[in-house]
């Protein structure tokens, strides 16, 4: 009797089923021990890859997307007047910007504040989605944000940060002077970069480069140059001639030695250099070792 109590019949069935399994296993075809080698995958030659136009464009125009660029309001207004719905300076799309001016027409909403920012070059609307700031009409503020151009008549600054500059811990006049020079320096370098890019492509003319000699300018020619009201506070005759000389030039950027050479018809070189230094200290002009240009 087997372990399940089936006796002799159980032993017969058990032995019979075992033989059947052995015969079934023996009748199955055996796998061949020989296998074919797998052909190695060779990737395509990556050196022959050419970037698409979209990839090239993205790489070319992302230089200012993450930069904080100091600007004046007139630069935005000029872009709007050109019917360009993307804020561009010297062929460079601009991301974050920084402005300094006076806040007027303040409208406080439940979770946001809207006001008009005014500087000496224009005015523009500002939207700020933060209710915890207390701005009074006439306060001087610094605005950091992005330019939103919906249509030629609907545009504003979407502010991420607004700082009131009339508090005692800030010196508004010093901040404004620094901002003016920063605006001029940024604009000059963007302009120079665009023109140098043209020269590398063998397009345009070398005379279009900032500071290139455009012919001698005499002091007599400066009499016809009229200065805007923003320069009314400059009364020194040499300083006014310096501003007039820069305004007379097509690109408002001049080589320092050419400026001195022009005014040396009437004044000593050392006196001219002193006037240039005074204007630079007062943030009326910006200078490098070789170039001079006005912030506005």
Keywords:
296 residues, alpha+beta, OB fold (Dihydrolipoamide Acetyltransferase, E2P), five-stranded mixed barrel, three-stranded antiparallel sheet, 7 helices, 34% helix
Question: Could you give a quick summary of the protein structure above?
Answer:
With 296 residues, the chain is of the alpha+beta class. The chain has 7 helices and 11 strands.
Describe the structure.
InterPro entries: NA-bd_OB-fold. Residues 17-39 are annotated as: Disordered. With 296 residues, the chain is of the alpha+beta class. Among the domains are: 68-170, Nucleic acid-binding proteins (OB fold (Dihydrolipoamide Acetyltransferase, E2P)); 205-293, no CATH class. The chain contains seven helices and eleven strands. It has helices at 7-27, 53-60, 73-81, 172-200, 237-248, 256-263, 269-281, and strands at 68-70, 88-89, 92-93, 96-108, 113-119, 122-128, 140-149, 155-164, 254-255, 286-287, 291-293. The strands form three sheets. Strands 4-5-6-8-7 form a five-stranded mixed β-barrel. The protein has a three-stranded antiparallel β-sheet with strand order 9-11-10. It has a two-stranded antiparallel sheet with strand order 2-3. β5 (113-119) and β6 form a beta hairpin. The longest helix has 29 residues, at 172-200. The protein is globular. It starts with 6 loop residues before the first helix and ends with a strand. The model is unreliable at 43-63 (pLDDT under 50).
């Amino acid at each position: 009797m087997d372990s399940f109590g089936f006796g002799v019949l159980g032993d017969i069935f058990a032995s019979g089923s075992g033989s059947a399994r052995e015969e079934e296993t023996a009748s199955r075809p055996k796998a061949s021990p020989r296998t074919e080698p797998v052909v190695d995958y060779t990737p395509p030659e990556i050196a022959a890859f050419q970037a698409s136009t979209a990839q090239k464009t993205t790489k070319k125009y992302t230089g200012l997307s993450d930069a904080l660029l100091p600007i004046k309001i007139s630069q935005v207004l000029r872009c709007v007047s050109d019917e360009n719905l993307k804020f561009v300076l010297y062929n460079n799309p601009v991301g974050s910007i920084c402005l300094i001016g006076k806040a007027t027409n303040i409208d406080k909403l439940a979770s946001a504040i809207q006001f008009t920012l005014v500087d000496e070059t224009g005015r523009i609307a500002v939207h700020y989605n933060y209710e915890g700031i207390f701005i009074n009409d006439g306060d001087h503020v610094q605005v950091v944000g992005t330019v939103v151009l919906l249509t030629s008549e609907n545009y504003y600054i979407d502010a991420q940060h607004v700082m009131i500059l009339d508090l005692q811990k800030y010196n508004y006049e010093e901040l404004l002077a620094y901002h003016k020079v920063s605006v001029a320096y940024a604009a000059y370098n963007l302009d120079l970069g665009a023109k140098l890019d043209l020269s590398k492509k063998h397009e345009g003319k070398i005379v279009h480069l900032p500071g290139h000699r455009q012919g001698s300018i005499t002091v007599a020619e400066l009499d016809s140059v009229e200065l805007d009201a923003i320069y009314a506070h400059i009364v020194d005759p040499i300083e006014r001639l310096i501003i007039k000389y820069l305004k007379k030039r097509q690109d408002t950027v001049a080589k320092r030695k050419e400026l001195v050479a022009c005014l040396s018809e009437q004044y000593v070189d050392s006196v001219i250099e002193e006037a240039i230094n005074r204007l630079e200290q007062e943030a009326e002009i910006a200078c490098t070792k070789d170039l001079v240009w006005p912030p506005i």
